[in-house]
Specification:
Blueprint: H1 11-19, H2 24-35, E1 40-46, E2 53-57, H3 58-71, H4 90-94, H5 99-108, H6 125-141, H7 151-155, H8 159-175, H9 196-200, H10 204-218, H11 235-244, H12 268-281, H13 290-295, H14 298-311, H15 333-344, H16 362-370, H17 390-407, H18 418-422, H19 426-448, H20 456-469, H21 487-496, H22 513-529, H23 538-542, H24 546-563
Antiparallel strand pairs: 1-2
Helix pairs in contact: 5-6, 5-8, 6-22, 10-11, 10-14, 11-12, 16-17, 19-24, 20-21, 20-24, 21-22, 21-24
Length: about 575
């Protein structure tokens, strides 16, 4: 294709090739030319829907292998597969028993998986399947989109799926603290004339870009617009490293002087290599090689910058600004559960801030489709919204979303108007989200039960029948105080898969709060391990939150019905 061999393909060269594609022979060589594109590995088999070939980027595999090796190097349970060799396909077989994936999920969101539930010794096909269920259902619970990935895909090491899931898990961990309620120093990034809400609307990616530009401006350099084409010459990176390197003004942290001489290197790859040697002195040489910088790989450069931010933010929380600190609340457990549930279903755009990201109702419409409520997309205003009147367009969407809820979904939305969604009224927005999540859960049960209507009573009676048959204690309903010990949940899991609960690990009577939480963590992880996609958190069981308790029993009922 590159007819004048200048390393670039001009449009003229491209059209010349396309015009030459008359014979099938040439067409075959064209396919080969595409497949030989550097660093892209084609994976056997094509996608049924589109006929496209699945591919993954070799450099991403290398980056993730190095990150996992470093993250888990001291973990005794992973020594059977670590360190992985980045130059081979070792990663795909190493992920096959589920242990590494479970460990990476816990690194991204600590305490997601109870370590007692991971099968670590003498693995069999059955116990490996359990680990993979546990990993996939837990990934879903932290907000990974896992709709098209099954345990078989991981066991067989399907490369594009393994890498896609691993990237989601790593990214959730990298982005965990790039959020104002978790890191108040980010307020230093406020620009003149901006309100706190403007800053809170930004996604983690946008905050990272803002952070990079903050340090570039401090260094007197021009700003960048992305982490791909704008960083290819490494000069922006050099200046950021120089700004964030410890200056020796904090006690116990020795200064590190960045050697800037490499910025004058003539050759891009050599300059990038010198820059990465400096990043290494800050403990931040991760995710990118010199070639990845020069090629401007957006995913790996984003990860490189996020890791740099996490280790050396170099921001001071401003003292003087009259900021209403009380408005910066972290999200509640309930909000986080809803957000992770939506993201696991693959809504687009991803929800970072529950109320702000629902203000145009686009995500709500996608959720309606997931619960089989038809949406007339011709009535929906889509971004980009006009500068003037953009909120009017969003409000019209919210009005339509409430109308659909009342008329089509038959939800109880008394006193809820489009304006409440648009303005992020917490109580009323949560009321709508709960009904969406509840319907989603009940739909799964109705599909399994040949469309018969399911109510809370149906679930309680199924739970009690199953418990009785196994000779265990029953519950009076989702508010039953005995649920705070998690024993009814654990007994139900043991009734569905006899012998799977290790009662010797549990305290069953006269429990302290800590022992209750311990039981609940074990119960939630065990539910996921036997194949129930549970979104609730251990605290929901301890505090007997009836809504979330209902979802736990409903997911277990779905798993139990698949047994039959």
């Amino acid at each position: 294709m590159d007819q004048d061999k200048d390393g670039k393909i001009t449009f003229q060269e491209f059209t010349n090739v396309v015009h030459g594609l008359k014979s099938s022979e040439v067409a075959k060589t064209f396919r080969k030319a595409i497949n030989k594109k550097e660093g892209i590995c084609a994976v056997a088999g094509t996608s049924e829907q589109s006929g496209t070939q699945h591919s993954y980027a070799e450099e991403e595999k290398v980056a993730f292998v190095n990150w996992v090796n470093k993250a888990l190097e001291k973990d005794p349970d992973c020594q059977h597969v670590l360190p992985m060799d980045p130059s081979t396909n070792h990663l795909f077989s190493a992920m096959g028993d589920g242990i590494v994936l479970c460990k990476m999920i816990n690194l991204s969101v600590p305490d997601t998986i109870d370590e007692r539930t991971i099968n670590k010794k003498k693995l069999t096909p059955f116990t490996i399947q359990e680990n993979l269920n546990l990993a996939l259902n837990s990934a879903s619970a932290i907000g990974c989109h896992v709709v098209n990935i099954g345990a078989e895909d991981l066991k067989e090491g399907r490369q594009h799926l393994v890498l896609g899931l691993l990237w989601q898990v790593i990214k959730i961990g990298l982005f965990a603290d790039i959020e104002i309620s978790r890191n108040e120093a980010l307020i230093a990034l406020l620009r003149d004339g901006e309100s706190l809400e403007d800053l809170m609307k930004l996604s983690p990616e946008e905050l990272l870009l803002r952070w990079a530009n903050y340090h570039l401006e401090e260094a007197g350099c021009s700003r960048i617009n992305n982490f791909s084409s704008d960083i290819k010459d490494s000069k922006a990176y050099y200046n950021i490293l120089n700004q964030v390197a410890p200056k020796g003004d904090e006690e116990g942290i020795p200064p590190i002087a960045i050697d800037m001489s490499g910025i004058r290197e003539k050759e891009d790859v050599r300059r990038a290599e010198c820059m990465l040697e400096q990043a290494d002195r800050l403990g931040c040489r991760q995710f990118v090689t010199a070639t990845d910088v020069v090629r401007g790989n957006p995913k790996l450069n984003l990860a490189f910058v996020a890791n740099l931010f996490n280790k050396h933010p170099a921001l001071k929380k401003p003292d003087n600004q009259d900021i209403d600190w009380s408005s910066i609340e972290g999200e509640t457990r309930e909000e986080r559960t809803f957000r992770n549930w939506m993201n696991s279903l693959g809504v687009n755009p991803r929800v970072n801030h529950l109320y702000l990201d629902l203000a145009d109702a686009l995500v709500i419409f996608q959720l309606y489709e997931k619960i089989k409520v038809p949406v007339n997309w011709d009535k929906v205003n889509k971004p980009p919204y006009p500068k003037l009147g953009s909120n009017m367009k969003k409000l019209e969407n919210c009005n339509y979303a409430v109308e659909l809820g009342k008329k089509e979904a038959k939800f109880s939305l008394v006193g809820i108007a489009g304006q409440d969604l648009n303005e992020g009224n917490k109580t009323l927005t949560l009321a709508l989200l709960w009904q969406l999540m509840r319907r989603y859960t009940l739909n799964i049960l109705e599909d399994l039960g040949d469309g018969q209507k399911v109510t809370d009573e149906t679930i309680v009676s199924w739970v009690n029948n199953t418990l009785q048959e196994a000779g265990k204690h029953t519950i009076s309903g989702f508010k039953d105080g005995c649920i705070s010990s998690s024993m009814p949940v654990l007994d139900l899991i043991d009734a569905i898969q006899p012998g799977c609960i290790r009662y010797d690990l549990l305290k069953t009577e006269h429990l302290t709060d800590e022992e209750k939480l311990n039981n609940a963590k074990y119960a939630i992880s065990m539910a996921r391990k036997i194949g129930a996609r549970v979104y609730a958190l251990p605290e929901d069981l301890v505090e007997v939150k009836p809504k979330m308790v209902m979802t736990v029993f409903a997911c277990l009922m779905a798993r139990g019905m698949r047994r039959v």
